[in-house]
Structure formats: C-alpha cells, structure tokens
Amino acid sequence: MQHEREDQLLEDKRDLNKFGYAQELLRDMGGFSNFAISFSIISILTGAVSLYGHGLLYGGSGMMGFGWTIVALFVILIAASMSELASAIPTAGALYHWAAILGSKRWGWYTAWINLIGQIGIVAGIDYSFSLFADPLLASAFGYTSTETTTLILFGITLLLHGTFNHIGIRLVARLNDFSAWYHIGVVVILVGSLVFFSRHELQPLDYLFQVGQTFSDKPYALAFLIGLLQAQWTFTGYDASAHTIEETIHPRVRAAWGIFTSVAFSFIFGFIMLAFVTLSIKNAAAASEAPNAFIYVISEALGGTFGSVVLWLVTFAMWFCGLASITSFSRMLYAFSRDKGMPWSRHWAEISTKYRTPAKAIWLVIILSFALALFDYIVKRVNPETTYTTLAFLTAVSVVGLYVAYGIPLYLKLRAEAKGVFQRKHYGPWNLGNWSKTINVLSLLWIIFISIMMVIPPNQTAGYALIAMFVVLLIMDLAYYKNHFPGPQAALSKSEEEIKSQEAKFRDS
C-alpha cells in the first residue's frame, strides 16, 4: 500500500513538472479531503441559510423549491465542465492556468484577477455571514447590543483565527475540512429531525414549497424571483477549491475532478432537504421576510428559546468551517498567480514557509483584502446611512459575478481552442465528458452570462458599481504592470529539469 502511494506521488510530481513547476506544497490530501474543501466552501449551512431572507423576500416559498433546483442543475453542468479541465491541466493556478494555456497569457492574467475579485468577495461574505449569526447569539448571552460595528469587529477576529489556522499547516486544515464535511451533513440531519419531531406548530403542506406568485418586495414577481436566485447562486460558489488544492492532492487528475463535481451534487441534495423542511416550518412568511434575520426567526418560532439557540449555534459553527476552507482555496490561487509574477511584489506572495509548507504571506494578504472589502462597505454606510442594500447582498453579489465570469472564461477558450483544433481529445484527462462536452460547455456559458447580469441589477447595483471600479483598476494594472512584469505561466514550461529539482530539494532539505 505504501509502495503504491509512493509511486502515485512520484507520478503526480512528474505530472506537475511537465507544466514547469516544482512540487513545493505538501501533497498529502486524499480524495475525500479534496471533496471536503469544496463541499465546506459551498456550505449549504452558510449560503442557503445566510441569504434565506433574501430568497424568501423576493421569491417567497417557491424560491426554495424551484429556485434552488433550477440554479443547482445549471451549476452541476458548470462543475462538470470545470472538472474536465482540472483533469486535463492539474495545477494550483486552475482557472488562470486553463485560460492561459487554452488562450494566451493575457487571457490568463485577466482570468486570475477577475477570480481574485470574486475570491475576496466570497471570503468576506462567508466570514461576514458567520459574524451576522454569531454576534446576535453572543450579544444575547453576554448582554450587549449587536450592531454593524460589533459585527465588523467579530468579522475581523474571525479572519485572524482563520489566517492562523491556515498558516499552521495543510494537515490541520485538511483534517478540519474532513470533519467539516461530516459536520455539515450531521447538522442538516439534526436540523431536519428537530423540525419534524419537535416543531411547536404543524408543518405546511408539501405544495407550499413550490408555491409561486408570492413576493414581499415591490418588484413584479417574475423579476423578484430572478433577483432572489442570488440565494442559491451564491451558495454554489467556491467549488473551484478542489482545483486550487490540486498540487496538494494525491492522484489529482481523477480525485480533484470528482471533488469539484460531487461537492456540487451532494450540496444540491442536502441543501434541498434542509430548505424544504425549514420552509415548511414557516408559520407566517410575511413576518419572517420582515425579520432582521429570517432564518433565525423561523427556527426560533418553530423550536423555541433554548433548543432553537442550540440548533442555531450548530449552524453558525458550520459557517466558521466554511470560512476556514475558503481562505485555504484563495491563498493557493494567490500563491499560484504570484509564482508566475502576476501580482505586484509577487516574490512575497509566492513564498512558501519552509516550516509549515504553506504560502504564509499569501494567506495574510487574503485576510487583509477580505477585511478591506467589508470595511469599505461599512464606511460607505456611515457616509450614506440611507442605503437600503445589505452588506451581505453586496459581498455575495461581488463574489458571484467575479467567480462565475472567471469560471466562464476558460470554458469559452476551450470551445474556441477545440474549434481551431488546438485542444483535442488526446489532451483530455481521465475525467472527461466525452461527446457531451461541447453541449454542456455551451449551456454552462449561457447560464454564466445570464446570472452575471441578474446579480448586478437593482437592488444590487452597488455591487455592479464596485465591480466596475475594480475592472477599471484592472485596466490600469494592465497598462502599468502586465506588459513589463508578467511572463505568464507558459514561462514555467521553459524551466530546465535541473531548476525544478533544485526548487524541490530546497524543501526536502529544510
């Protein structure tokens, strides 16, 4: 068994060397750990829960039955398309490397920066979700008043804790992510069981879950329903984490590909079950939609004081695990991009801790950028207190558009490369879609275009303004940095075998 593992590790290292990179990160993750990091970042107990009020406000109860299912089915197609590319090009740069190899280094550079924008939004959104749930619960326990300021402080503390855990090492984080996957499933079972057996009032009939036509917003129902899709769409983000940790995964061409696909599929199933029973537990949908936190309101009404609080704490801890995994993914993407000199001061963000074998400086840059995005929103609200959007809707819309545009670029480039005959069947990895590949890729792209537009229309136009500002900065960076400093990932292919071995020896000897 040990001999087979060593043979596989050697094969994985040679695979990576073919793309011009040394094996610097510790390759110790199994298939379940790779699945677990994406499953933890998707976290049905974060996205579906924290934006439950958003979905209910705009789409009513039908959002949980139809909205969740519609989004999930399209996202499964996108995940399958990405799994195919992860199997073909198994490097930690993932989206960015796929775009650069299938298109050009400029395509890769833009993909990386757009992905970076989305990653900032998802890390900030996840840890802010945790703080939104934990702060009122802590306030109730310790007798202080929960405000936007106390939530921001708790958000900063949470980021610091997640940064520290990620700095210490991939083994610890991998074990926590393994635990997180089972924890998420366990909490869903506890939550559903509690609502079925201990609810203080009868559940709604099953057809209530698919009731359409009801909205508590001022929008026409069709438009309101589409706006409400943000709940499900933001939940299904971050599953590219399985690709970003591909250089730490054993037998990644198969395991990382399955990690991407199965994390979405299982999240769809368990998420649907959870949302179904929470929604069927609603006694007064209008009151729930008007509550500061609709999910907390529904659970408290159904389960009562102490028992309801215990269940809510279980849900809140799941969000903590989700944030931990998201920083792991983001830091690996940042490390891979910096390794190719894509960032200003790249040598710092590409530096690997010889003690912990983690990209320590990249991890702490992730913490700073994520806090800065939430702080920016906090300052805007202090300057203009009349704003009606929520901080969470702002952060999640930024992450959805940034991530899904980055997901879509390599899929478009793959289709283009296949049309030109540059990317052929022989370039596919062992995990591929065969004759269905082109059809699934096209459907994935159409959904990405549609959802990206829907996420920035009113009332989420502030997210659109923020994204425009970020893209302007990106264009400036193109002129000021790209031309003179970025050799692209293709430059790695020109490294000699001796250079690669020298890099790997540095970590063996440390």
Automatic annotation (TrEMBL):
Membrane topology summary: Multi-pass membrane protein
Molecular function GO terms recorded: transmembrane transporter activity
Gene Ontology, cellular component aspect: membrane
Membrane-crossing residue ranges in chain numbering: 35-53, 65-89, 109-130, 181-199, 220-236, 256-282, 318-337, 362-380, 392-415, 436-457, 463-482
Claim: Hydrolase is one of the keywords in the record: no
Keywords assigned: Membrane, Transmembrane, Transmembrane helix, Transport
Superkingdom assignment: Bacteria
Keyword Nucleotide-binding: no
Subcellular location: Membrane
Major localization class: membrane
PANTHER family in alphabetical order: AMINO-ACID PERMEASE BAT1 (PTHR45649), OS04G0435100 PROTEIN (PTHR45649:SF26)
Descriptive protein name: Amino acid permease
Organism: Brevibacillus nitrificans
